[in-house]
Amino acid sequence: MSMQLRERGLAVKLAERIREESKRVLSEHGGDEIRIMNFCGTHEWTITHYGLRSLMPPWINLIAGPGCPVCITPGYYIDVLVDVSFEKDTVVLTYGDAFKLPGSRGKQPRSLFHAKAMGGNVKVVYSFRDAITEAAREPGRRHVFLAVGFETTMPSTAIPLAAGEVPGNLYVLSAYRLTPPIMRFLAEAHPEVRLDGVIAPGHVSTVIGAEAWRFIADEYGIPVVVSGFEPLDVLLSIYMIIRNLAEGKPRLMNEYSRVVAPEGNKYALNAMWEVYEARDSYWRGIGVVPLSGAVHRPRYSGHDFFESTGLRETVTDDKHPGCICDKVVLGLAKPTQCPLFMKACTPGNPYGPCMVSSEGTCRIWAENTPLL
Ligand code: SF4
């Protein structure tokens, strides 16, 4: 299947159709540009890695969106966990993706990578199941798991928590963020992004369902398509948006129907909302976004990191001087507009959060754009 979805001849034909149809849309509906945002970092990887922008006519602008959970994880969470990693009988557990994410304190904010190098007790795990294994193996030590992610990863903690499978010495710092609220925020607070189409995330939609994105078409009049991740998936999604623009009746479409159901995954959703509830939450460098975070409901507060420590969630100044990652995340700037890109900020030595994770736009552009 994946090889068929990378077939070069089909890609070229689709690109030709996109060119012809989009030209007609602009001549009939006016305007000189069609702006399409791909929400997801993995879509950005497909677009950049396979050079899909080079197949587009100059009037189609593919804009990377906010779909990198590591990029928007508050610096305060890292500051706190760096401190915690030096406490007696405590282990901080993180995904590798967030290991080098800088915090917000001081001139050179520390990451968990730095904390480990300085003697802090930090371990990288591949999954929450691994975190459970680590905590069960050392019942005398407190383990704190940094839960970074969107709705795609929320079930990984919610299901074991709901099933009572999490040892009492394992605490979760929920850095989870919800994806539809940030797109609503973008439409409301940043109309200057001026979107003509949205490519909605496929993995997230596997959990929350395609219907979760209907509001973009119905309330904001923007065509939206749930897309798969192969090059032909993305090209077909662009074509579906262009066709929908030609029709003039914005609607929700599902290009990824081989995986995504309209209602999502009920088992995962039930577990998620059994354990978590939505709350206004801070996105790094961007601000507080209504009902965009997930906190543990009271009956699961025994495993909540903040509840267990008495610490309060705090917003700190976590924008590093010179870094424009907040603008990159919101589609208001490209990585190459940052003066630090591939100079003071590289994949090996990330200065800003968009260079840390493989889903960060700066990191994707750094690793996949020829001749940089
Ligand atoms: Fe920030 Fe680095 Fe991206 Fe510049 S290149 S915006 S410093 S993450």
Short summary:
The chain has helices at 8-29, 41-49, 52-55, 75-84, 112-117, 128-137, 154-162, 179-189, 202-208, 214-220, 231-247, 266-275, 305-309, 325-329, 361-368, and strands at residues 34-40, 60-67, 90-94, 122-124, 142-147, 170-174, 197-200, 224-226, 252-254, 276-283, 287-296. The chain is of the alpha/beta class.
Give the helix/strand layout.
Blueprint: H1 8-29, E1 34-40, H2 41-49, H3 52-55, E2 60-67, H4 75-84, E3 90-94, H5 112-117, E4 122-124, H6 128-137, E5 142-147, H7 154-162, E6 170-174, H8 179-189, E7 197-200, H9 202-208, H10 214-220, E8 224-226, H11 231-247, E9 252-254, H12 266-275, E10 276-283, E11 287-296, H13 305-309, H14 325-329, H15 361-368
Parallel strand pairs: 1-2, 1-7, 3-4, 3-5, 5-6, 7-8, 8-9
Antiparallel strand pairs: 10-11
The structure holds iron/sulfur cluster.
Residues 323-325, 328, 335, 338, 340-341, 345, 351-352, 354-355, 362 line the site of iron/sulfur cluster (SF4).
Query: What's the main sheet like?
Result: 5 strands, parallel
Strand percentage lies at 15-25%
Structural class, from helix and strand content?
alpha/beta
CATH superfamily of the largest domain: HypD, alpha/beta domain 1
Query: What is the CATH C level class of the largest domain, in words?
Result: Alpha Beta
Cross-sheet strand order for the largest sheet: 2-1-7-8-9
Distance between the termini: 32 Å
Mean pLDDT: 95
Assembly of the depicted chains: single chain
Shape: globular
Uncertain residue segments: none
Q: What is the radius of gyration?
A: 21 Å
Number of domain modules: 2
Q: What's the number of extended β-strand segments?
A: 11
Give the second-level CATH assignment, the architecture of the largest domain: 3-Layer(aba) Sandwich
* Attached small molecules: iron/sulfur cluster
- Written as H for each helix and E for each strand, in order along the chain, the element string is HEHHEHEHEHEHEHEHHEHEHEEHHH
